[in-house]
Amino acid sequence: MEEAAKRWRIPFSHHSVWGLCIQILLTLAAVVAGVVILTTPQALGAGVRQGLDICYSVVIPSLFPFMVLAGFIVRSSAGDLLAKVFAPVLGRLFRLPKVLCGAALMSFIGGYPMGASMIKELLRQRRVDTETAGRMLTFCVNPGPTFVVTAVGISILGSAKAGGLLLLGVTLASLLTGWIFSLVDSRNAGDNQPTAKPLPYSSAGVAFVDAVLAANGGILAICAFVVLFSGLGALLEAVGAFAVLSNTAGTLLRGGLEVVSGCVAAGGLGTSYWVLPFLLGFAGCSVIGQVMATLAGQGVPFRAFILSRFVHGGLSAGICSILFRLFPQAVAAFVPVQPPFFILAPDSKTVALTLCFLGLSTLLMFAVMKCLIIPKKP
Q1: pLDDT tens digits, residue range 245-276?
Q2: Cα–Cα distance between 282 and 277 in angstroms, integer?
Q3: Nearest one of 264, 267, 258 to 234, comparing CA atoms
């Protein structure tokens, strides 16, 4: 190894050896992925189309309005009112300063990437330090009620009651996860604040425009991750990766990549009632990638966040299993309904028009912001 390092002019050390091995593995993985993409274009195209359908039917309708609302709340003084109302409960449970409790509350309502978006804005306003932001990620990345009750409960399982039990179990698991990780933080709630003076809140008009712009860019990034991991799942299925696994293991792998596809598969597993709540709590690599991309370059540590995905998933599976034993009539919902998914029936033209609308509305809002917000030079 040392001779090879000299030949390729690579400094030989334990760190460089590991780096070289990782580089070789990544290169081989990229080559294999390229070969699979070239040899299975139809499977990849089907996966991409399925990802676009998921974005159109589930992601955009359930997340975009809440992303605008959450962005407006955190940018305006409305967040202070929510923080004061819920601070006595959330502040004590998670050991957070009062100003952060509004963002914590909205993360339980808006859906998976909502918490990361609000934390990013709080960092920009200097209302939270990076360590506390990293700890907030352990309980601020949650499936929203719209997704769990409507998409999973009604559309996948055909039962709003089963969706409500899933939402209750996953929410309780998130609260418990946040409480566990708050015990690890030795600082007091009053110390979890940045030393710099916070920026003032924006006016209502500016906050609304900024919220729409941020939500527009955020939803496009989310859809990109959903499409990517949906295509990756289709490629794995094309090469037979799921065929060698059991139904439960294949569903865990599928949901570990992209949570919506995993929930569709988990709805018909029958006796494996713990798989679906585990996937909802874990959230999948797609959501994890969305969160890390949102907060990239902010200095936020992600180790606790990654660990919390497994903790949240395990607690969700355990709590929901208990709830299903208490309400056995909801267990009958774990049989796939026909059609198996999608509230709407989108086609490629509709999806394309939707994405074009998002892009054009982004340009329009930039123009509005330039005219109304940026002062003209004298």
Answers
A1: 878 888 888 888 888 888 877 876 665 678 88
A2: 8
A3: 258
